[in-house]
Specification:
- With about 850 residues, this protein is of the alpha+beta class.
- It is about 35% helix and about 20% strand.
- The strands form 11 sheets. Strands 10, 11, 12, 13, 14, 15 and 20 form a 7-stranded mixed beta sheet that branches. A 4-stranded parallel beta sheet has the order 2-1-28-29, covered by helices on one side.
- α2 crosses α19 and α22 packs antiparallel against α23.
- The protein is flat.
- The structure holds ligand ANZ.
- Ligand ANZ binds next to β11 and β15.
Length: about 850
């Protein structure tokens, strides 16, 4: 009657699972309902540490749960194994990034197995395998065919430290997301994916995910896409052929435009400055070079003093012919809208700040003090309606004086035919009028930019394109894929601003597949976010060398039912995966448009309140904890420490408590002394009620990610079983076996090794991981009830049947709602209510 040590227990059951392939997903003929459970795949940056433990434990629990609910579960694992850390590590050691990568992968695999995870190990993939990245290249070609992959020369984000370009998404507060170096702009010819073609769908489809993805993530995606609606308005410019267009969300305010601003780094600014005096030209050049050193973040900052140069040129307001002085100012960005704005200082704060700095006129065109039906809430005070906002006069609110732009609702003034209209109606009317006169039209704008995918680094997917001597571009035909990375031998990987692949002469020099003429391979590699944008589909047919993924398997399994990962991927990875999913849908390869039906962002295990990391030297070692206290104790303790979505502190995690609980659970299984086939219809009634209440509650606890509550309930069950064994009918009571079996099956989702061992002690064949949770017996869920006497002035008017544990307030409400009681109270004033739940409610009344 000895309990196995944690390592012995783990080895025993991990060996069993591996030998029996216990968690392999069922094939096409498996008729159970399917669940695709997926954790965001790991990056092989080193061995696992305790900071990762919550992620893997939670994904595993979800997968195990659905198996217990009778589902055919697919829970695969792979590695996102291209990328900078491997390349940087290789440079540091003068080694091959492959070595570092695959060594780390092996280590992580081993750790994940020791943690008792239930992956389908037959589907492992690594994005750095040619068998995988070949299909990245295929995807690139498909996007190219559809006009969704294109090259352009434009200013790109450049990390001077990593010596590579970065996507907008990889620039955080003006710095490189990876190394923190300040990002600069550099003009380069690069490959882009046209994600902006999908902006509307990427935005609108978020509504489908409401309630199924964390609201915060949906909001971040919405803001990132940043759709604005309004109008494009054409302005003539004195002394220039052809109109210039501006984008405005407020075409209703056209009459309030008092000047015109061009982004200094837009081509138009240089062109207009060209026509100005020598002095202005010089001032402009100086200003432009200063602006080019400023980040977009700084340019948009509201508390930076406004700067600009008057270009001595004028734009003509299309609605009233007024001459608007044209300024170059850096608060207008070159690559948003059309890089120019009509400035309406009375109603736009940035324009007002600028107008006040340079003494430009301010003209109010929306009277925000004029009432719009229903917009100013009124409250009753002593029977009189009083507006919540005290009425102010327009004079008091003059933006030129207060410095505060009037951005609220109101009625149009000083605006010709728009006068008297509300802001909203005036926007619509202004667009109609502009359209009719041909001087403008309704327009949309997005913050979202096309996805820059070229990287000047070695450790990534080669772009499957060759360049001919005459500057032509030829895609590598599909049947010649993969374009494999060359050997790293003799290559200098050190960052130098161009791709190291360019120096691999034998590799670079090739022939045009179309003509046989000499040609050069594109030396850049793809952003690794391309790799992760579709990997969830590759898991469905991971070894196929015919197709990227099998469309029939995709119809069976996809989209992913439960996607689980860190909130750090709230924008980049999820947006790209959503985009590629929509492209594949348009290609007719899949029948869904969103890749991840539900999303959970789980927290991390922190130490001293900060993220564990090698650089901070605060890692709690993972391997050592698998020996002591053991995988199950770690998993129970983490689950118990708090809700899945929260970060938890390792200091708050009690593994000794968890160890004791697991030991008690195992002892119960060994103590049970009834036949394996005993019928569960008798025995200790209180214990049976607790068991069945848990069977009824556990699914929603798991589905709402309340694992901490589930563990607490399992602990309660262990205590009650032990009490029943020690008193009552003892270890032979069928209710004890029923409870112990329920405990084992439920415990499996958190402490699988312990659960298997219990299941065996209870006389069953493994694996408990495939045993279905039983249905709760409704007869055992009925709560005890009590009878309440409801009195009015001491006289019983009715009786109520209520739950025995009803709260006083609830009971009083029930009594008041009763018809007989209402009749007895009619026309009377209630002086006092006395409630003694669940027995008595007494209303003391007069009149
Ligand atoms: C006139 C106006 C009047 C505007 C008003 C706003 C309020 P969002 O919502 O971010 O799309 N704008 C247009 N292009 C710009 C650029 N390249 N750089 C900086 N600002 C630019 O903002 C759209 C508004 O931002 C546009 O509407 C324009 O100012 C400005 F009472 O036009 B608005």
């Amino acid at each position: 009657d000895e309990q196995l040590s944690a390592p012995a227990l783990q080895v025993k059951w991990q060996k069993y699972w591996a030998e029996h392939d216990t968690f392999r997903a069922g094939g096409a003929d498996d008729m159970r309902p399917r669940k695709y459970v997926l954790g965001m795949f790991p990056y092989p940056s080193g061995d696992m540490h305790m900071g990762h433990a919550e992620n893997y434990a939670y994904v595993d629990s979800v997968a195990r749960y659905w198996r217990h609910r009778g589902h055919n579960v697919l829970n695969p694992i792979g590695w996102d194994s291209f990328g900078l850390p491997a390349e940087n590590a290789a440079i540091k050691r003068g080694a091959d990034p492959r070595e570092w990568t695959y060594q780390n992968i092996d280590q992580q695999k081993e750790s994940l197995k020791r943690f008792g995870t239930s992956y389908d190990w037959s589907r492992v993939l690594h994005t750095s395998d040619p068998e995988y990245y070949r299909w990245n290249q295929w995807l690139f070609l498909k996007l190219y065919e559809r006009g969704l992959a294109y090259r352009k020369k434009s200013p790109v984000n450049w990390c001077p430290n990593d010596q590579t370009v970065l996507a907008n998404e990889q620039v955080v507060d003006g710095r490189c997301e990876r190394c923190g170096a300040e990002v600069v702009k550099k003009k380069l010819t690069q490959w882009y994916f046209k994600i902006t073609d999908y902006a509307d769908r990427l935005l609108d489809d978020l509504n489908q995910l409401e309630g199924r993805w964390p609201h915060k993530v949906l909001q971040m995606q919405r803001n990132w896409i940043g759709r604005s609606v309004g109008a494009d308005v054409d302005f003539e410019i004195e002394g220039r052929e052809g109109a210039v267009t501006v984008f405005s969300t407020r075409p209703d305010t056209l009459h309030g435009a008092t000047f015109f601003v061009v982004a200094p780094d837009a081509e138009l600014a240089a062109e207009l400055a060209e026509g100005a005096s020598a002095e202005v030209r010089e001032r402009f050049q100086e200003y432009l070079s200063a602006v080019q050193k400023t980040t977009d973040i700084d340019r948009q900052s509201t508390d930076r003093p406004k700067t600009g140069v008057f270009l001595e040129r004028y734009a003509i307001n299309p609605v009233n012919g007024e001459r608007l002085p044209i300024w170059a100012a850096d608060y207008v960005l070159a690559d948003y809208g059309h890089g120019a704005v009509m400035a309406v200082p009375a109603h736009d704060q940035r324009d007002l700040d600028f107008a006040r700095a340079f003494d430009l006129p301010v003209k109010v065109v929306v009277d925000t003090t004029a009432p719009i039906t229903g917009t100013i809430p009124v409250i009753e005070v002593d029977g009189e309606g009083v507006p919540v906002e005290p009425a102010a006069t327009l004079d008091e609110q003059n933006p030129a004086v207060t410095g505060v732009a009037l951005t609220g609702e109101g009625r149009m003034v000083n605006s010709g035919e728009l006068n008297g209209l509300s802001k909203r109606n005036a926007i619509a009317r202004a667009i109609e009028t502009l359209t009719a006169s041909g001087k403008g039209r309704a327009a949309k704008n997005y913050r979202l930019r096309d996805w820059l995918i070229s990287r000047q680094r070695f450790w990534g997917t080669p772009i499957p394109i060759v360049h001919t001597e005459d500057g032509g571009i030829t895609p590598v035909p599909e049947d010649q894929l993969p374009v494999r990375l060359p050997s790293v031998d003799g290559l200098d990987l050190a960052p130098k601003g161009s791709s190291p692949l360019g120096a691999a002469e034998k590799w670079v020099q090739t022939t045009d597949p179309a003509t046989g003429d000499p040609a050069l391979r594109d030396p850049d590699t793809m952003d690794t976010f391309v790799d992760s944008s579709w990997y969830f589909l590759r898991f469905l047919s991971p070894t196929s060398d015919e197709v990227a993924f099998d469309v029939d398997e995709a119809r069976r399994w996809a989209p992913v039912d439960s996607y689980i990962g860190g909130v750090e991927h709230a924008i980049l990875h999820l947006l790209y995966a959503r985009f590629i999913t929509k492209v594949l849908f348009d290609m007719g390869m899949i029948d869904f448009t969103e890749p991840f039906s539900t999303l959970v962002n789980q927290g991390m295990v922190l130490l001293d309140g900060s993220k564990m990391s090698k650089s901070k030297g605060n890692l709690v070692e993972f391997s050592a904890s698998m020996d002591d206290p053991g995988a199950d104790a770690v998993r129970v303790a983490i689950a118990f420490a708090g809700p899945v979505e929260d970060d938890i502190n390792w200091e708050d995690v009690s593994t000794t408590g968890a160890q004791k609980f697991l030991a008690r659970a195992q002892r119960i299984a060994r103590d049970v002394d009834s036949p394996v086939d005993v019928v569960f219809n008798s025995g200790d009634a209180a214990l049976r009620r607790i068991t069945h209440r848990l069977l009824a509650d556990a699914p929603s606890l798991v589905e709402q990610t309340k694992f901490n509550v589930l563990v607490a309930r399992l602990m309660e069950l262990v205590n009650t079983i032990r009490k029943t064994i020690d008193s009552g009918a003892g270890a032979a009571d069928p209710a004890v076996r029923e409870a112990a079996e329920t405990l084992a099956v439920m415990l499996d989702i958190i402490a699988p090794h312990t659960a298997e061992e219990m299941w065996e002690s209870l006389g069953h064949e493994p694996s408990v991981g495939l045993v279905a949770w039983r249905q709760a017996d409704p007869a055992l869920l009925v709560e005890a009830t009590a009878t309440t006497a409801v009195q009015v002035n001491g006289k019983v008017r009715t009786t109520l049947e209520v739950p025995a544990r009803i709260a006083g307030a609830e009971l009083e409400a029930l009594a008041r709602a009763d018809e007989k009681v209402q009749r007895a109270l009619e026309g009377k004033e209630i002086v006092r209510v006395i409630v003694r739940a669940p027995k008595i409610v007494n209303f003391a009344v007069k009149g």
